[in-house]
């Protein structure tokens, strides 16, 4: 099993390396290598999942590569196999596989075709590194590597000015979070001399007693560590206030947005917290913090999506909002629900993005939904797929999104977190609005694009390679929730990987009973009401254009500017950075230290030299005077001394 | 107040005056003459000390040879009489200051040192005879023979240097050098220059 | 007495007389006279090594120590003469008298070294000084040369007067001019006696005068002018032979007759040494003329020597002796390189004359590089070891602050050495640089030794150690 | 009877006069040379007097050598002066400042 | 074991060959290139052998060669290595080999001298890392200046005269103070051997002064914050290979010296002053990163980045002082971190300077604004450069991460603030490194007026091997830890020696 996992882990890496060395070979070879390596990984994930559930060996942890083994510390690369990891890896590899397949067609005209697959393969490897990590160091390494691949993929079009700005920003913001993660990691290593999950889990109670001093305040060690780690998760999973990199990252190719910035990488933070749930479970303060961060993100960033017009940016804000749901679930100790939403979200959001990709490529990289319109007749399959994905996203009953999202909202409400509950409720409405906005604007109405650009060949959908993944993804987007809801809620799915199962159980037993009852029950809840209102409202507003709302300019600006984050990130920080760093360099480094201290000293000595040189007048009488004066000076000195 | 002391005072006063004159007279010829005077006066004072040989030497060698040399040079170089410049006045206080400080230092030191020693400066030292010259000669050629030889070297060096420095061949003189004429070889007589082609 | 005939001084004096006469007949074939001179020096050096007369003359010392130093001096003279010969030949102003006068000066240095009485010392100094007056003014057609000569003459004579005044005081208050007797007298003197201050004053006068001859600040004032004004071959001579001799005089005077008053003069000498180092380093920074530059460099080097000596300790003594030899060696090399180069058919005057040397004459550029770095005290060159020993002696005697000043000044002085290297290597200007090869090999050996002895410093170290042991045997 | 210090004081005065002569002189080198002669003269006074005081002939012998050396020195000095005059057509002290800095 | 003097060979072989090359004065480009390649290769092989036969299980000095050199002064020709030295020796020989490869396709006037100076430099560096007599160490340490001075001065850029003189005087100034300290210590210990200094009992004031002197000496070399200004100038003016050797090996001499001298000898004073010294390191890490961001010249940017990265080295070293009393493990982690950071920075900065050199060859400008869109024309090169930039910003999986990680870990043991400030480097280093990548490699460049061309095969070998080693040390730095582990704990224990 370990060996198989290892193969699973390494096959994308091997794929990457092979691709690296066959950079100049044909496209076919590239396609072959990249897809097969991912396929192997995917099949192995499924197989392992099967093996795991059939044999049920419990979590396995094993090291396979020594990072460092000294008298002071010992660090390894390892794998940690349990249901959580395997499910996550299945999700990752499946989405990855589909996106790879999709990209063959999507990227076919690109000159850097091979490079794209190198990056994506490498990304899959890095993601799996996180998924299977059995220690914090490996987690951190994978964490940064996915950051790297995200950086590379956002900036995939190296000639595109906005893309290379966006990837720079994305990387830096992620780095902010990484500081937290790194500090947490270092703190663990320093205090407990290990980074292994199991070992830390074993001593978690004693960690909880320890204290650590941060900036003069004393904290509970475990809380401090968890908080630091969560800062990492906040950046990666785009939680307030570190969310602003994600919309910009849509500058990358759309399959990448599907794979990385919707389905997998951004959920790494969620995964990490779930993975470490035994630790987080002990830290109430941090959990509340997480809960609020999540719900604030879910609500406010959902609002921002309303004023966007770029199809991908809307979906990106929606992603942030959905991630907020997951985070909120984590904060409420509903780890398996968070994971559940993660899984369903991965599928339907990937589907949404791939659909968007289809649309974009059809419209020659036009992404403004105000210009696109009436695609329903040209792209029926995409239209359907998009519709299902949207339904799932807004949580329309029976879809996967419904199960995961509604249960999070209900559970949070059930456990009495009132304010988060209200925020999450309200954001159902916004979710409905912006989803419908895309839906209606893109597939209905009229295109404002120039005629000849619209469709050269209007009867054609995109080619089959691009449609197949849409088909495949539609299935889990719609039905997966129904199938895994019960096993998940009663704890079969994740077994003991996640903490606080009993909480879910109590919710399940007390509120849901089973998936079908939950489905029926949902029609009676306020959630559904809000959903319906939203749907009707948007139907009227976006489709029928029955009325118009004058949103106050102030609110619109606030939202467009993303509560000021936009100007902060794209205007203020670079400006300050430029001015401040230039100031430091010119004023302090060059003027003060270099010229002031160093060069002034030398010029002082030089001046002294040229001044003193004048003593050497060249006249004999001065010379003799100097000599005699020196003699007299010495004589007087002696006279006074002796 | 004995006769020696009176002599000493007179001559030493004159010596100081002539010395001042040496360094202040505008005309170098006058300076030289005053220097001659100084030497004469010193010779007398030395005589008073019992150094007869040295006082004679002073007059013979210095006045007779060195000062004449000085005068020759003065004549040769045709030096103008200098005017007292402003710089002179400017530096005069410094000069006087240094002069006074130095004198005070050393003179007080001498006075302090010898205030309890009432020793007559006039003293004749006898080594082998009463004659100062004989004594000096004896010491010079026995104890100080090596020094004497070295003094010879110094004089040789003086001669050599003076000649090397001042000797110059007048380039306008047209004269034949017989050595060169004899030394000429065949190849020097005819120099074949390859004709330029263009 | 017949044995005295074989001492190098006598051989040189008689040889010089012969050569002066022979030269009259060899006007056309100067190289013969020159070869004879070199032969004479070689013979003298051999005698200096082999013969140590057992017979002692009360005012003249014969010992292994003086013989070895004399050998070194003659060796230096041979090298200098070789450089000089090439240089003067190149400038078409070769005169055999130059060498005869130099040899008389050399005899003067030997007399200084061997002197065991103040009279002998005076004669030696005068013999040397007279020779130097003539040599500095040797370039008769140059106004600078004669200006330098007359300056040196006036100041030198003044310093001789000061020396004589000091000698008269010492003589008057100790009753003797013999080192040994003086030492005896001073040892038995107590601070209340009448003679005490007189002797101290005498020492001050003598110190002032000797420091003048040495070129130590604040009596250094003549050095740059005279170095600049004279022929570069004279400058080499000035910066090596007299320095060694004066240094030995210092050693003998202070460590034999004045030893008992060590607490008086060591402070003065430390002051003079530090002043020399500082002034030498700072004044040199903005110099344009290479001879002036090297003059100031010499001043600061002299400071090191005096400083080490003033510590009055065995390691200080050793360091100063080592430094002196290293300094002379380095000076020989650095001036030697400059003598071998002419720029725009003149001798090198300004540093900028050397610009572009590395392109046209890389070999000479390397030589300059090595000599300059050695002077700056950069390891692994020999100059470093010399400075190291001085600093070590300072620290051993708990003069930490002084050692810091000294090393800081080393950094300052490194700047002007680097300037020369910079000009040679980094600047590209077209100078009509030409070199001559007649004494090339000697120069190369000279320079390579700077490096070789830097890597194997123990060779020189053991030699100087031997010398110091000899010296301590004498003085105690 | 002349006290020993009288002679010494006299010599000191002449010595300082000659030194003052050197650095007060703004005229020509020749007078400088004469000042130097005076200086040596004063030193000779010292030597003879102190020799007498010690009852030792060494002082006089010393003076003898000083006289010899100074004579040779003057010769060289005058020779240098002549060379200088030939080169610069002047022996003014004030004109001797080409070498400086 | 070897019975031939392996360390002496490492030192003198390159110096000897170098001297011949310099003296032979332009013997032809291909011949001198071949000789240099061969020599550096031999040295590399020998140092690998040294590494192999070095006994990791004990941290003591090995391959000792000890002869009396100057008997009167008690100075020995005393060579030896421990794990720390071996790692640096390997780095030196590796980088020099790469320089030889890189230079093989370059064209310089008087190339044989150029290569000769590099060989001399290599030998001297070897000597610095293996000398255990303090004077011998000082001699090697100081001699380093000469060849580098000439390399920058002769083959450097426009402003080279100013830069070289500044560089020389700066470092010379620092080292003379160090010389005084060495002599002072030797005077007390009656020996110049470094390990004899460890047993001295010094008064607190003495230690303070010694510490300051050593700190100035080595701090300038490292360079630490207020005395770093020579480095950007020197780098900008140096030819590519000169920058490479300067950044990758020469700076390490400072850190090495601190470990050898500062830590064990001036412990008490170090503990007293450690906070201030850590502040200096932190200023280097943060402030210099800001300054690096402002740079318009690529080389200056990397030069400042070097200063910032060396800040981690000094921080790791000074943390030892801070932590020794209460948390020796953390102290040891810090020291190992410092060592790993040195090696890693040696590789990465070398690589980046090579990269800039390659770009400069095409565009003839080091300004960021004159270089853009390189990736379109030099994809492989750009790939590697992005890799190095990432490594420079401490990406895990590259060696750049390991050292910083350990130092931050160790600093948390002292104070969370230190760790936090040091960790800021994660953003800052990324911001300037990626800014360089963003502006230079990416972007649209249609005309290619700079004439970029994919790099030659020898350049690919150079960069490729650096990629491999940076990766190797990033993924499995265990080799390095094995080498260092015992020696580091020896150093830590010798610190307690002085305190006893």
List keywords for this structure.
heteropentamer; B: 198 residues; mainly alpha; Four Helix Bundle (Hemerythrin (Met), subunit A); 3 domains; 8 helices; 72% helix; extended; D: 101 residues; 3 helices
Average pLDDT rating of chain A: 83
* Count, helices of chain A: 27
Task: Write the CATH homologous superfamily of the largest domain in chain B.
Answer: NADH-ubiquinone/plastoquinone oxidoreductase chain 6, subunit NuoJ
Name of the top-level CATH class of the largest domain in chain B: Mainly Alpha
Largest sheet of chain A, in brief, is:
2 strands, antiparallel
Short recap of the structure:
The complex is a heteropentamer of chains A (642), B (198), C (476), D (101) and E (500). With 198 residues, chain B is mainly α. Chain B is 72% helix and 0% strand.
What does this 3D model show about the protein?
- The complex is a heteropentamer of chains A (642), B (198), C (476), D (101) and E (500).
- With 198 residues, chain B is mainly α.
- Chain B is built from 8 helices and no strands.
- In chain B, helix 1 packs antiparallel against helix 2 and helix 2 packs antiparallel against helix 3.
- The mean pLDDT of chain B is 82.
- Chain D is mainly α and 101 residues long.
- The N and C termini of chain D lie far apart (54 Å).
- The model of chain D has no long low-confidence stretch (mean pLDDT 87).
- Chain E is mainly alpha-helical.
- Chain E has one domain.
- Chain E is built from 21 helices and 2 strands.
- The mean pLDDT of chain E is 86.
- The chains are: A mainly alpha (642), B mainly alpha (198), C mainly alpha (476), D mainly alpha (101), E mainly alpha (500).
- The interface between C and E is large, with 39 and 38 residues.
Strand and helix layout:
The complex is a heteropentamer of chains A (642), B (198), C (476), D (101) and E (500).
Chain B: H1 3-24, H2 28-49, H3 52-77, H4 86-114, H5 132-142, H6 145-166, H7 178-183, H8 186-189
Chain C: H1 8-25, H2 30-50, H3 64-90, H4 96-114, H5 118-136, H6 143-174, H7 179-187, H8 195-214, H9 223-229, H10 232-255, H11 262-284, H12 290-310, H13 314-339, E1 341-343, E2 346-347, H14 357-360, H15 362-376, H16 382-396, H17 400-426, E3 433-435, H18 440-455, H19 458-475
Antiparallel strand pairs in C: 1-2, 1-3
Helix pairs in contact in C: 1-2, 1-4, 2-3, 3-4, 3-10, 3-13, 4-5, 4-10, 5-6, 5-10, 6-8, 6-9, 9-12, 10-12, 10-13, 11-12, 11-17, 12-13, 12-16, 12-17, 13-15, 13-16, 13-18, 13-19, 15-17, 15-18, 16-17, 16-18
Chain E: H1 6-24, H2 29-53, E1 62-70, E2 75-81, H3 83-103, H4 111-130, H5 134-143, H6 145-155, H7 160-189, H8 194-197, H9 204-221, H10 230-237, H11 240-265, H12 267-293, H13 298-324, H14 328-363, H15 374-377, H16 379-392, H17 399-414, H18 416-423, H19 425-441, H20 457-475, H21 478-499
Antiparallel strand pairs in E: 1-2
């Amino acid at each position: 099993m370990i060996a198989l996992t290892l193969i699973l882990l390494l096959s994308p890496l091997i794929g990457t390396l092979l691709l690296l060395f066959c950079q100049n070979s044909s496209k076919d070879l590239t396609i072959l290598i990249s897809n097969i390596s991912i396929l192997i990984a995917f099949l192995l994930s499924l197989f392992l999942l099967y093996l795991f559930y059939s044999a049920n060996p419990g979590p396995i942890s094993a090291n396979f590569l020594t990072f460092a083994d000294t008298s002071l510390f010992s660090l390894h690369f390892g794998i940690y196999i349990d249901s959580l990891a395997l499910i996550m890896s299945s999700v990752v590899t499946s989405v990855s596989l589909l996106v790879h397949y999709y990209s063959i067609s999507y990227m076919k005209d690109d000159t850097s075709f091979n490079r794209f697959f190198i990056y994506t393969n490498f990304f899959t490897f890095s993601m799996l590194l996180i998924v299977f990590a059995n220690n914090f160091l490996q987690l951190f390494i994978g964490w940064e590597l996915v950051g790297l691949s995200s950086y590379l993929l956002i900036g995939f079009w190296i000639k595109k000015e906005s893309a290379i700005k966006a990837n720079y920003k994305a990387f830096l913001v992620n780095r902010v979070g990484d500081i937290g993660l790194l500090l947490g990691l270092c703190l663990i290593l320093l205090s407990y001399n290990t980074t292994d999950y199991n070992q830390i889990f074993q001593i978690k109670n004693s960690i909880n007693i320890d204290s650590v001093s941060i900036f003069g305040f004393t904290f509970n060690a475990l809380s401090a560590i968890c908080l630091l780690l969560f800062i990492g998760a906040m950046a990666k999973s785009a939680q307030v206030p570190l969310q602003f990199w994600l919309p910009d990252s849509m500058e990358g190719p759309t399959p990448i947005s599907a794979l990385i910035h919707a389905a997998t990488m951004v959920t790494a933070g969620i995964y990490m917290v779930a993975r470490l749930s035994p630790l987080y479970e002990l830290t109430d303060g941090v959990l509340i913090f997480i809960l609020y961060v999540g719900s604030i993100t879910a609500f406010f960033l959902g609002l921002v999506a309303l004023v966007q017009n770029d199809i991908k940016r809307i979906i990106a804000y929606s992603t942030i909002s959905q991630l907020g749901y997951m985070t909120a679930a984590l904060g409420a100790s509903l780890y398996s629900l968070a994971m559940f939403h993660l899984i369903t979200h991965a599928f339907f959001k990937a589907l949404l993005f791939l659909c968007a990709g289809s649309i974009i490529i059809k419209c020659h990289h036009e992404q403004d939904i105000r210009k696109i319109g009436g695609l329903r007749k040209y792209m029926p399959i995409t239209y359907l797929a998009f519709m299902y994905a949207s339904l799932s996203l807004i949580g329309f009953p029976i879809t996967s999104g419904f199960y995961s999202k509604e249960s999070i909202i209900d559970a949070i409400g059930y456990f009495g977190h009132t304010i988060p509950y209200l925020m999450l409720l309200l954001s159902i409405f916004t979710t409905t609005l912006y989803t419908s906005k895309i839906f209606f604007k893109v597939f209905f109405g009229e295109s404002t694009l120039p005629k000849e650009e619209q469709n050269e060949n209007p009867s054609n959908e995109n080619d089959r390679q691009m449609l197949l993944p849409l088909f495949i993804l539609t299935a889990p987007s719609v039905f997966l929730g129904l199938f895994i809801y019960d096993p998940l809620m009663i704890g079969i799915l994740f077994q003991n990987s996640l903490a606080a199962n009993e909480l879910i159980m109590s919710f399940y037993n007390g509120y849901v009973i089973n998936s079908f009852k939950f489905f029926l029950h949902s029609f009676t809840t306020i959630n559904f009401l809000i959903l319906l209102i939203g749907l009707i409202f948007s139907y009227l507003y976006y489709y029928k254009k029955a009325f118009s709302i004058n949103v106050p300019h102030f609110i619109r600006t606030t939202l467009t500017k993303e509560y000021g984050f936009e100007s902060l990130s794209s205007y203020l920080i670079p400006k300050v950075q430029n001015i401040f760093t230039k100031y430091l360099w010119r004023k302090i480094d060059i003027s003060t230290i270099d010229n002031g201290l160093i060069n002034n000293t030398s010029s002082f000595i030089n001046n002294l030299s040229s001044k003193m040189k004048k003593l050497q007048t060249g006249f004999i009488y001065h010379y003799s005077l100097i000599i005699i004066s020196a003699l007299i000076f010495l004589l007087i000195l002696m006279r006074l001394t002796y | 107040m004995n006769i020696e002391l009176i002599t000493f005072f007179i001559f030493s006063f004159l010596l100081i005056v002539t010395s001042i004159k040496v360094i202040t007279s505008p005309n170098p010829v006058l300076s030289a003459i005053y220097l001659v005077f100084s030497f004469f006066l010193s010779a007398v004072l030395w005589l008073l000390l019992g150094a007869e040989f040295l006082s004679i030497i002073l007059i013979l060698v210095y006045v007779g040879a060195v000062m004449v040399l000085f005068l020759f040079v003065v004549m040769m170089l045709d030096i103008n009489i200098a005017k007292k410049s402003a710089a002179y006045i400017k530096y005069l206080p410094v000069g006087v200051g240094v002069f006074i400080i130095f004198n005070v230092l050393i003179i007080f030191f001498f006075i302090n040192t010898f205030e309890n020693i009432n020793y007559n400066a006039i003293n004749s030292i006898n080594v082998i005879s009463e004659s100062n010259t004989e004594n000096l000669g004896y010491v010079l050629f026995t104890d100080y023979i090596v020094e004497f030889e070295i003094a010879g070297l110094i004089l040789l060096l003086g001669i050599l240097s003076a000649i090397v420095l001042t000797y110059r061949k007048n380039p306008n003189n047209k004269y034949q050098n017989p050595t060169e004429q004899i030394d000429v070889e065949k190849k020097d007589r005819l120099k074949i220059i390859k004709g330029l082609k263009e | 007495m017949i044995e005295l005939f074989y001492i190098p001084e006598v051989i040189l004096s008689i040889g010089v007389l012969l050569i002066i006469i022979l030269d009259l007949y060899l006007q056309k074939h100067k190289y013969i006279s020159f070869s004879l001179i070199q032969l004479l020096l070689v013979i003298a050096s051999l005698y200096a090594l082999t013969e140590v007369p057992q017979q002692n003359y009360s005012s003249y010392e014969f010992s292994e120590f003086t013989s070895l130093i004399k050998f070194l001096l003659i060796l230096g003279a041979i090298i200098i003469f070789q450089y000089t010969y090439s240089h003067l030949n190149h400038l078409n102003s070769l005169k055999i008298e130059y060498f005869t006068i130099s040899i008389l000066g050399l005899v003067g240095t030997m007399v200084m070294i061997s002197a065991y009485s103040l009279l002998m010392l005076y004669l030696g100094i005068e013999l040397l000084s007279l020779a130097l007056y003539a040599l500095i003014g040797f370039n008769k057609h140059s106004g600078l040369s004669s200006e330098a000569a007359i300056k040196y003459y006036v100041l030198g004579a003044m310093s001789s007067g000061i020396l004589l005044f000091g000698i008269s005081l010492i003589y008057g208050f100790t009753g003797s001019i013999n080192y040994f007797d003086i030492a005896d007298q001073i040892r038995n003197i107590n601070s209340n006696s009448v003679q005490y201050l007189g002797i101290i004053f005498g020492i001050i006068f003598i110190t002032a005068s000797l420091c003048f001859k040495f070129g130590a600040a604040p009596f250094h004032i003549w050095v740059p002018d005279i170095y600049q004004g004279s022929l570069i071959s004279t400058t080499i001579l000035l910066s090596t032979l007299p320095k060694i001799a004066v240094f030995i005089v210092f050693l003998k005077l202070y460590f034999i007759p004045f030893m008992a008053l060590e607490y008086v003069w060591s402070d003065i000498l430390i002051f003079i040494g530090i002043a020399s180092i500082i002034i030498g380093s700072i004044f040199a920074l903005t110099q344009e003329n290479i001879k002036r530059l090297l003059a100031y460099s010499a001043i600061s080097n002299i400071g090191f020597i005096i400083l080490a000596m003033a510590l009055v300790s065995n390691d200080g003594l050793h360091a100063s002796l080592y430094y002196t030899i290293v300094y002379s060696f380095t000076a020989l090399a650095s001036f030697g390189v400059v003598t071998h180069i002419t720029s725009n058919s003149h001798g090198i005057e300004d540093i900028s004359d050397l610009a572009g040397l590395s392109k046209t004459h890389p070999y000479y550029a390397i030589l300059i590089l090595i000599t300059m770095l050695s002077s700056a005290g950069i390891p692994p060159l020999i100059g470093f070891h010399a400075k190291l020993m001085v600093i070590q002696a300072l620290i051993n005697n708990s003069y930490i602050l002084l050692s810091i000043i000294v090393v800081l000044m080393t950094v300052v002085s490194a700047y002007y050495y680097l300037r020369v290297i910079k000009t040679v290597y980094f600047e590209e200007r077209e100078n009509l640089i030409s070199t001559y090869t007649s004494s090339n090999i000697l120069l190369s050996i000279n320079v390579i030794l700077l490096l070789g002895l830097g890597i194997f410093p123990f060779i020189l170290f053991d030699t100087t150690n031997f010398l110091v042991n000899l010296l301590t045997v004498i003085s105690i | 009877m002349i006290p020993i210090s009288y002679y010494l004081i006299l010599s000191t005065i002449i010595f300082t006069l000659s030194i003052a002569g050197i650095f007060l002189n703004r005229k020509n080198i020749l007078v400088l040379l004469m000042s130097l002669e005076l200086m040596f003269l004063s030193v000779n006074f010292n030597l003879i007097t102190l020799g007498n005081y010690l009852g030792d002939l060494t002082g006089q012998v010393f003076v003898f050598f000083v006289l010899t050396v100074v004579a040779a020195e003057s010769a060289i000095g005058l020779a240098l002066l002549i060379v200088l005059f030939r080169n610069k057509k002047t022996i003014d002290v004030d004109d001797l400042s080409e070498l400086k800095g | 074991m070897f019975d031939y003097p392996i360390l002496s060979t490492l030192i003198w072989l390159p110096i000897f060959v170098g001297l011949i090359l310099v003296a032979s004065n332009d013997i032809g480009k291909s011949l001198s290139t071949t000789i240099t390649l061969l020599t550096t290769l031999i040295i590399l092989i020998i140092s690998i052998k040294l590494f192999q036969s070095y006994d990791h299980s004990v941290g003591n000095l090995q391959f000792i060669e000890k002869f009396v050199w100057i008997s009167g002064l008690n100075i020995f020709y005393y060579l030896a290595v421990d794990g720390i030295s071996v790692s640096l020796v390997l780095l030196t020989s590796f980088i020099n080999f790469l320089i030889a490869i890189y230079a093989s396709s370059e064209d310089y006037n008087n190339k044989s001298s150029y290569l000769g100076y590099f060989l001399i430099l290599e030998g001297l560096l070897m000597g610095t890392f293996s000398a255990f007599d303090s004077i011998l160490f000082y001699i090697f340490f100081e001699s380093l200046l000469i060849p580098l001075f000439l390399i920058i001065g002769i083959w450097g850029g426009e402003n080279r005269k100013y830069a070289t003189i500044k560089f020389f005087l700066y470092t010379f100034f620092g080292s003379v103070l160090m010389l005084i300290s060495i002599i002072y210590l030797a005077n007390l210990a009656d020996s110049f051997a470094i390990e004899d200094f460890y047993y001295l009992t010094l008064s607190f004031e003495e230690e303070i002064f010694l510490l300051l002197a050593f700190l100035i000496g080595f701090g300038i070399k490292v360079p630490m914050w207020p005395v770093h200004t020579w480095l950007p100038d020197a780098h900008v003016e140096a030819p590519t290979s000169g920058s490479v050797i300067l950044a990758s090996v020469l700076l390490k001499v400072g850190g090495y010296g601190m470990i050898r001298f500062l830590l064990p000898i001036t412990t008490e004073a170090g503990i007293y002053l450690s906070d201030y010294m850590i502040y200096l390191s932190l200023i280097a890490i943060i402030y210099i990163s800001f300054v690096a961001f402002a740079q318009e010249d690529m080389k200056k940017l990397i030069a400042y980045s070097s200063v910032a990265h060396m800040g981690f080295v000094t921080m790791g070293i000074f943390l030892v002082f801070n932590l020794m009393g209460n948390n020796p493990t953390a102290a040891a982690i810090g020291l190992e971190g410092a060592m790993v950071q040195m090696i890693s920075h040696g590789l990465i900065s070398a690589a980046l300077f090579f990269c800039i050199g390659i770009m400069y060859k095409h565009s003839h400008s080091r300004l960021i604004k004159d270089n853009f869109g390189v990736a379109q024309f030099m994809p492989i090169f750009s790939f590697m450069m992005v890799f190095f930039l990432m490594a420079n910003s401490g990406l895990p999986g590259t060696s750049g991460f390991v050292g910083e990680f350990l130092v931050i870990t160790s600093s948390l043991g002292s104070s969370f603030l230190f760790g936090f400030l040091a960790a800021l480097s994660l953003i800052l280093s990324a911001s300037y490194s990626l800014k360089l990548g963003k502006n230079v490699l990416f972007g649209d460049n249609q005309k290619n007026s700079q004439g970029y061309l994919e790099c030659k095969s020898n350049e690919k070998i150079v960069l490729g091997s650096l990629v491999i080693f940076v990766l190797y040390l990033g993924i499995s730095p265990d080799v390095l830890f094995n080498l260092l582990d015992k020696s580091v704990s020896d150093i830590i224990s010798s610190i307690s020696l002085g305190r006893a």
